[in-house]
Amino acid sequence: MRRETSAPTMKDVAREAGVALGTVSKVVNGLPVGESYRIRVEDAIHKLNYQVNSYAQGLKANKTYTAALLIPNTINPFFASLAYYINIALMKRHYRMILCSTDFDPLLEQEYVTMAQQNKVDGIIGLTYNPTLIVEENTPFVSIDRSMGPHIPCVACDNFAGGQLAAEKLADLGCRNVAFLRNGSSLDNEPNKRKAGFENGCLSRGISYEMKILDDSAPYEEFEQFLSEHIHNGKLSFDGLFCVTDRLTYLISETLRRLNQRVPEDVQLIGFDGIRSFGDIDYRCSTIVQPVPEIAEMCVELLLQENMRTKPPLVCLPVSYAYGGTTLG
Amino acid sequence: MRRETSAPTMKDVAREAGVALGTVSKVVNGLPVGESYRIRVEDAIHKLNYQVNSYAQGLKANKTYTAALLIPNTINPFFASLAYYINIALMKRHYRMILCSTDFDPLLEQEYVTMAQQNKVDGIIGLTYNPTLIVEENTPFVSIDRSMGPHIPCVACDNFAGGQLAAEKLADLGCRNVAFLRNGSSLDNEPNKRKAGFENGCLSRGISYEMKILDDSAPYEEFEQFLSEHIHNGKLSFDGLFCVTDRLTYLISETLRRLNQRVPEDVQLIGFDGIRSFGDIDYRCSTIVQPVPEIAEMCVELLLQENMRTKPPLVCLPVSYAYGGTTLG
DNA sequence: TTGTATGCGTTATCAT
DNA sequence: ATGATAACGCATACAA
Question: Which of B56, B90, B126, B324 is an S-S bond match for B95, by CB 3.0 to 4.6 Å?
């Protein structure tokens, strides 16, 4: 009866092949077994369409070959790209990936961590915003873009160098009065270093700069107002802007168009992330490109290194500049 | 000894609380239990930081509350959006989602199906391209955009109606000579119906039309050539184009710019999918919008309906038109 | 080299 | 109402 509704088990295979249970297990796991036995077992496996039960394996071995990825969503192209490359990196190592879209919700993040732990994942990779996220000691965790304490490795691009590179590029392209525009999470995370890097770059190149930092709750309109206020006689007092993301760069460029400022002739724009049209065509703006495939590989590598005495608290990967039409080169 | 390396189990809780194993199970599952016992067990759970083991539950119950999503990637914004909304729909029902990025690779698709089955998922949702994909009878499967046989439900937007709507829109906006451009998989799938719908719409509105269908392996350049050939005295002989995706619309608009054709003044463009800038800002082109959240909900609903006598072989969900700058309205 | 038996953490059936 | 016990499917230590 049960045979009709449920999948065949090793016991079924053993009976079919006329061998013992342990022999089947060995064949399945590629352990040495008498040639004739192996053939018989393989035939039976084929005949019954047998598939191992990962849940039974996982229960027995206390290892599930599963990791969870916590990320706000896959709508935003940067997150989407991260999810893709992490998925690929895990696959390559024969790990399954449970996707957890957290929608920036700290409570949901915590729920997912709990769920993942109950699911006995071998590790969690998280780009999270909950400053007090509780993770069991015995669950390996790798954080993206935010330090979560000395025992949890954090992987990010070199945000400071990225900010610096943006400043240098603008200076090289002739800008003398620039500004940094930033919105998004006010949490203490790695992307915050873009500001310091930019400042540093401006100082070393001797160009004057301003900062406009919006906190979490501020409406986008404040940027519009900021820019309007810096227009005198129809001319913007900045000739270069560094925006904290490509997304913001896009919004700003739309605003500038409404304000009759030409990009890049009147003002040059550099964004951050390296987003492309439809994921793989051209860059949507001149930008500091995050090495997403490398970030993904590094996260997975760090997560699965069981026997690493001490894991690095912070790994910064190199960024690069890419032209995308919003600068002169 | 084991206690230090592995998570606590019900047995540990039972010992800590001084009750029997079964009692702990009942408390965990909210079954009636003596008040004083319940308190003691809950205290012990809290103290030990006990978490149920989903793998043990799954093994016992032959139910894992897990589904797999097979999709080429999360880089393409349409796939990315689908992945997000399916993830959300599953979460709402307390199902975990294993993400399987197949990269359009039929062999990889089959591997993932096998993996999912070994992982005893309760069902699979797949947007796949393997015409001979083998799925166990007893694994519920819902397909997106491609019919896979009478017993496997297929969910898609109403592609025929979408094509028709595109034709009608172009006609309404004054077009008299239009063309349909298509590339991508030559497999027999639902999006193919966009062509028939478009044709139908053109005929009913009495406007003349041409088709340019590229097969899988054809290079994009053939579109460029096609358009060049239709330019006489600097003027394109089409005043409207319907492109099979927003992505193609973008590429075509770039080509038209190089050919000195203005969009939308000289030629109006309508795409398909409803992709937005950075996932959530404005539409990248005038487009036929797929109802992605509804598609996601429908897939999950169909997948998890255990006691549905007969599942619908094909569900088509309504599309809508959205202005995105590449038409006159 | 092959077979047997135990246990992984749960749930559920049975006595008590 | 509570406690003991078997079974889920598999891996493995051990016995044959």
Answer: B90
